[in-house]
Amino acid sequence: MTDENLPALLRPLDGELPTEARNLATSLRVLFNGLEISVRRYGARRSRDAGAISRYLNGSRIPPWEFILDLVRDVAAHRGEPIKEETLQLLRDQHHAAVETQGNPASLLKLTQLQLAEADRKSQQSAIQIEVLTQALQDRQILLDDVELQLREIRHRDAMLELRIDRVTEERDELLQQKTQLQNELTALRDELKRAMVRADELETECSSLETKIASLEGPEGVEDFTPGVMAIGILDMVGFTRITRRLNEKDLISLIERVRRLCNQVSAITGAKFFHARNSDVSFVAPTACAGAETALLLSESETTTVLDDLEAEVRIGVCYGQVYTTAGIMLGPTVSLAERLSSIAPRDGVLTDSSLIEQLRKESAFHVPGELEGRYAANPMWQRPVRGLGVIEPWLLVRPPDAES
């Protein structure tokens, strides 16, 4: 189809478009032309921005797969025809090629997630096929057993009833023919079952590969990266966690780790803190403000999970600081990070130690009065000065909630 046949509202394709993007845009234009409506009208029909649809059709922007799938369905419905699998496969290949050429990590992540969903769908179909073939194999085996039983009876009757030899012979030959046919069907079903099981293993391997690719696209530990700068950073140290892992069975250990993960998600939803990695017995978090960092630390120390760890004779210690944080390749660096780690190592059991920089920032953010309270939510008490390896002499503060604070 030439450009003269396309809707009048579509601009000609840019001559500098990559080949992959041009191929996809051309196919989308051919499909859209089959609707015989304007871009604005189609945008109103599908509750989509007409400008975005124009960019998809002009090749200046790669559309999401959901848009392409909706367009195929709308064209098929308009024409009164079923969706052709070869059309979907062509569009899927062109879309994948355009996204990979674009090289956008978020687009690659979405593309890989779609590939995983497709592989999972095929894996489920393969499992259903295995179940059907297995049932058919069992049915044929039952029939074969029944035929063999009848053959044994016929042979016995053949020996006992010589006068009926003709009829028995005819019946025996028929059963022998049925036996041969069933044996052939049984062999064919076994071969097909083996092929289906091999295909299922291949699809499971593909799913695992795609999940690994998604994890690598999502970043370290499956958590989005953060911009370095001045912020609150905290370290939760679960002392004795390694000893616990040797005492618990696999089920209880997985349950404990899952509770820690859910706790981090719940606290993150409340304070906005990001739990960006977990290493050995340490869990780290960052927060944009001192108040958010302090609230995160206290919620962690007050949680039900820390009570469970206490029952298992593991000590929860938290250090939280405020200052400049640097990051490279998913690794946090800087004096603020080192100080938070040191504070977590010397904090009292289930306690939160902080530095003077975070206390000062709390004053600025919420009119914090030391040793008073922050709107009835926090209280801080200075601890004794002590030397810390690599950082000199520091004066930590013990961050707690006032006795009459609301939980």
Structure description:
The chain is of the alpha+beta class. Helices cover about 60% and strands about 15% of the residues. Strand 2 (about 275-280) and strand 3 form a beta hairpin. Strands 1, 2, 3, 4, 5, 6, 7 and 10 form an eight-stranded mixed β-sheet that branches.
Amino-to-carboxy terminus distance:
68 Å
What is the C-alpha radius of gyration, as a whole number of Å? 34 Å
Spans of at least 5 consecutive residues with low confidence: 1-8, 215-224, 368-374
Q: What class would the helix/strand composition place it in?
A: alpha+beta
On the 0 to 100 scale, the average pLDDT is: 80
Helices, by number, come to 13
Shape: flat
Task: List strands and helices in order, with pairings.
Layout: H1 19-33, H2 39-46, H3 50-58, H4 65-79, H5 85-102, H6 105-160, H7 165-218, E1 229-239, H8 241-247, H9 250-271, E2 274-279, E3 282-287, H10 290-301, H11 304-311, E4 315-328, E5 331-333, H12 335-346, E6 351-354, H13 356-366, E7 379-382, E8 386-388, E9 392-394, E10 397-400
Parallel strand pairs: 4-6
Antiparallel strand pairs: 1-3, 1-4, 2-3, 4-5, 6-10, 7-10, 8-9
Helix pairs in contact: 1-5, 2-3, 4-5, 6-7, 9-10
